[in-house]
Amino acid sequence: MAQLTGYTNFKYFSVTSASPAVAHVEINRPSKLNAFLEAMWLEMGQIFGKLSIDPEVRAVVLSGAGDRAFTAGLDVQSASQDSPLAPGRKDGPTDTARKATLLRRHIAEFQECISAIEKCEKPVIVVTHGISIGLAVDIACCADIRICAADTKWSVKEVDIGMAADIGTLSRLPKIVGSASWVKDVCLSARYFDAAEALAVGFVSQVHESKAAALAAAFKTAALIASKSPVAVQGTKEILNHARDHTVEDSLRYTGIWNSASLQSNDFTTALLSGIQKKKPVFEKL
């Protein structure tokens, strides 16, 4: 794969071009099981913010480097030293309200960086393998399509480190999976669940025998999406995400307003004529 132009300045991520208009973002700290430092989630936010408006990109595949883990979640040792509430820190406020304000801002920044995956205008396909715990679930919940290798071991791990998950799993997972009982089962217990269970409850849409096979499937799907009208694809993602969080009536109104603009695109005519002319349509960058 070729390096994607404009994405060479990231320390913890590799961003390459998997095929025309398809970006591959790879978490690249395999020696530490791709566990996240603060610098990593800041980079992730920057990358997906940039991909969102990059006209050369129409679909994104996100995976983790190495054989052992998609990500082991938060680098707890680093967090225990760098957190605003890290034991022994002398440079922070001592007042309770001021400590709370500092921590709230820290959490909000972290949330925003991970939410950049969901807010990315381009569809994001996440491919998980091996150890996929804690932050791995937060990240996967933000993706549009979830594909995993058969060896994936998931866990909403936060209760085991004395906290409620706060980066998005508890907000998004209940809307992804239909069973509230199952969601509470895995979130309250921090127990591991495997790829087969994730598929059975609808958390992932595909399971493949290996990481390589899962990646191949993701790249194939991403290439197919990238061949479609970017106006239609990005509009579809926007409307689906809006519908998830609003009533049917509100969503229908929003769709009407959205399409009143997007249906004026040349893409609409191009797509219609391609069927009549029996030729593959080619769409402009967006």
UniProtKB/TrEMBL annotation:
Entry keywords, A to Z: Acetylation, Fatty acid metabolism, Isomerase, Lipid metabolism, Peroxisome
One Pfam family in the UniProt entry: ECH_1
Gene3D superfamilies cross-referenced by the UniProt entry: 2-enoyl-CoA Hydratase, Chain A, domain 1, Lyase 2-enoyl-coa Hydratase, Chain A, domain 2
Keyword Lipid metabolism attributed: yes
Record InterPro entries: ClpP/crotonase-like_dom_sf, Ech1-like, Enoyl-CoA_hydra/iso, Enoyl-CoA_hydra_C
Gene Ontology MF annotations: delta(3,5)-delta(2,4)-dienoyl-CoA isomerase activity
Localization annotation: Peroxisome
Record's GO cellular component terms: mitochondrion; peroxisome
Pathway annotation from the record: Lipid metabolism; fatty acid beta-oxidation
GO terms (BP aspect): fatty acid metabolic process
The UniProt record lists the keyword RNA-binding: no
Record family assignment: Belongs to the enoyl-CoA hydratase/isomerase family.
Protein name: ClpP/crotonase-like domain-containing protein
Organism per entry: Rhypophila decipiens
Lineage of origin: Eukaryota, Fungi, Dikarya, Ascomycota, Pezizomycotina
